[in-house]
Amino acid sequence: MWKFIGRVLTIVIGIFVSFILFFFILSFIVGASKESPAEVPNNSVLKIIINKTIYERATDNPFADFAPFSSNNEGLGLLELRKAIKKAKVDNQIKGIYLEMNMANAGYGTLQELRGDLLDFKKSGKFIYAYGEFFTEGAYYLLSVADKIFLNPSGLLEFNGLSYNVTFFKGTLEKLEIKPEIFKVGEYKSAVEPFLFDKMSDPSKEQATSFITAIHNEYLQAVSLSRKIPVEKLKIISDSMLVRSPRDAVKYGLITELAYKDQVEAQLKKESKSTDKLNLISLNKYLAGEEENGLEESKIAVIIASGDINSGKGEENESIGSERIVEQLRIARDDKNIKAVVLRVNSPGGSALASDVMWREVMLTKEKKPIIASMSDMAASGGYFISMACDKIVANPMTITGSIGVFGILFNAKNFLKNKLGVTSDGVQTGKFSDLGNPTREFTAFERKLIQKEIDSTYEDFASKAAKGRKMSLEELKKIASGRVWTGTQAKQNGLVDQLGGLETAIEIAAKAAKIKSYSVTYLPKKKDFLEDILTKIGDSESESNISVVKNELGEFYPYFTYLQKIKKMEGVQARVPFEIEIK
C-alpha cells in the first residue's frame, strides 16, 4: 500500500513540477518575444492580411505570427490596424501597403473608420495594392480605396447590393409546445419577433429598409469617389448584377486587373523599387515593441465597451460587464492625470439594469471631467443607454444606433416538459405570486399586467433619461424612439447624435472640452498579459479558446447556438436590438 501511495505522490509531484517548469519556460519565451521594434528594411511594404474578425482591440499574443500558437478566433484589433496605418504613413522605410483579404468580418462602422485611415495614408503619396481570391461586398467597400485592385482570375466579386435577414423560431417553438410570453414597449422593437411571427412585421421591414438603404447609399458614394464611377452607374451594375465573372469586374472598372498572387508580388516589388527581393513586413512585426501610451502627463482615457450588456465582469470583445465598466469609469474619474474620457461603445444592448448601472457612473464622471461617446459598428438600445448621458455623442455615418425601447421574454414550457419529456411539476408556496415566472404554468391576466407595467416603467425611465441627455422634450424624444433603429447619419438628423466621425473625432472633442493641447491616449481596461490570459482561460468553459472549438464544429449553425446562449442570459428587462443585425 505504501509503495502505491509513494508512486502516486511521485506522479503528482512530477506533474506539479512539470507544470511549474512549463510556465517558467513559457514566461521566458514570452519575455524574449517582447523585443524592440523590428528593423524595417528600406523600400518595405506593410502587409495587412484581414482574414479574422475585427474587434475593437486585439488580444495580447506574442506568438500571433507563429502557426502553432495563432488562431483565427483571436481576431484583429481595429486600434492596432489603425495604429499601423498611421505609423506607416510617416515611415520613410515604408513605400506602400499591401492589403490582402477576401471577406470582411466586421460591421460597416468599423470598415468606415479603417477606410478613412487608408484614404489618409494615400495623402502621403504612397501606394495601396489589394488582392484577393474573392471579394464580399464588405471587403470590396474597404479595398476599393486601393490604387490597384487585383482579383484572382478564377475568383469572384460580390457586387449585388446589401441584404439583412432574420431567422424566426415561432414554428420551432410550436413543434416543441413551448409558449413564449412576450412583453415589450415600442412599435419597432423587433427583437422579440423571431418568437412571435414567421416573418418580419411591417414596422420591422420599414426600419430595416430605411437603415440598409442608407448604408448602401453611403457605400456607393464612397466607391464612386475611389473608383471614379458615377453612383447611378454603380446602382445599375449592382441592381442588374452585371458582375457575373472576374472579367466583368474588370470591364466595369471595379477591379484593376486579374492576377495571381505571385504576379501581384512582382508588381509590388517593382512599385516599391526593391532591387533584391520584395520586403513585406507583417502587421505584428511592424508593431512589435510599440508602447500604448505616450509620455505626456495629461491623458485622455478611452474606455472600450464592446459586446452584449450584462451584469458582472464581462469578457473583452464578447460582453460588456457592468462591474468592469463601472470600475474603469471610477479609475478614470479619480486619476488626476486623466483629463477627459471617451466611452467607445460597440454593443447591441442587453440588460436594462446593467445599462442603468453604467449610465449612473457616466453621470458621476460627467460631473468631474468631460466624457464623450464614440459609437462604433453599433450602439443601440442598451448601447445607446450608456452613451446618452455623455457630454457629446459621436457616431460613424454607418453606425447602427437608437432603438430606444425595452422588452422582456419568458417561456411557458409546461406542455413541452409533459408531452415531450414526460416531466411534470408541483409545489407549494407562501403567497399568491411566490412562483411568478414559473416556466411550468400559464401566466394569469393579472400577472401579465404586472410584468407589462414594469416594462412600461423601464421604457419611461429610458426615454426620460434620453430626453434629458439630448435636451429634448419627452414628447419629441418618443417620436424617434419606440425601438426604432437608425444609422449614424439618420440619428444626427434626429438629434440623437451630435457629430459624425470616428474615434479620433471623439478624442479631439474630448481634448478640446478638457482644454488640453498636448496629451497621450490610454486605453481601458488594461490589456491582460498573455500568461495571465492563459491562466484565466484554463478550465473556463466559456473562454474564447473553448468557444472557438464549438464555433468550428457547428460552422454555419453557430449563430443559432449563440441565440440560445443569449436567451439563457436574458435576466430581467432587456434593452437590445434584434439578436444579430448582420448586413451582407
How is the secondary structure organized here?
Layout: H1 2-33, E1 44-50, E2 54-55, E3 76-77, H2 78-90, E4 94-101, H3 108-122, E5 127-135, H4 137-143, E6 148-157, H5 170-176, E7 179-185, H6 193-196, H7 202-227, H8 231-239, H9 246-251, E8 257-258, H10 261-271, E9 279-282, H11 283-286, E10 299-306, E11 308-310, E12 314-315, E13 319-321, H12 322-334, E14 338-347, E15 349-351, H13 352-368, E16 371-380, H14 382-385, E17 392-395, E18 400-402, E19 406-412, H15 414-420, H16 445-469, H17 474-479, E20 485-487, H18 488-493, E21 499-500, H19 503-514, E22 520-524, H20 530-537, H21 544-554, H22 558-568, E23 574-576
Parallel strand pairs: 1-4, 1-9, 2-3, 4-5, 5-6, 6-8, 10-14, 10-22, 11-13, 14-16, 16-17, 16-18, 17-21
Antiparallel strand pairs: 7-19, 12-13, 15-23, 18-20
Helix pairs in contact: 2-3, 3-4, 12-13
Structure, explained:
The strands form six sheets. Strands 10, 14, 16, 17, 18, 20, 21 and 22 form an eight-stranded mixed beta sheet that branches. The protein has a six-stranded parallel beta sheet with strand order 8-6-5-4-1-9, with helices on both faces. The protein has a three-stranded mixed beta sheet with strand order 11-13-12. Helix 2 (78-90) packs parallel to helix 3 (108-122), helix 3 packs parallel to helix 4 (137-143) and helix 12 (322-334) packs parallel to helix 13 (352-368). 43% of the residues lie in helices and 20% in strands. It has 584 residues and is an alpha/beta fold. It has 22 helices and 23 strands. Strand 5 (127-135), helix 4 and strand 6 form a beta-alpha-beta unit. Among the domains are: 44-62 and 71-160 and 241-286, 2-enoyl-CoA Hydratase, Chain A, domain 1 (Alpha-Beta Complex); 299-406 and 437-532, 2-enoyl-CoA Hydratase, Chain A, domain 1, CATH 3.90.226.10. It starts with a helix and ends in an 8-residue tail after the last strand.
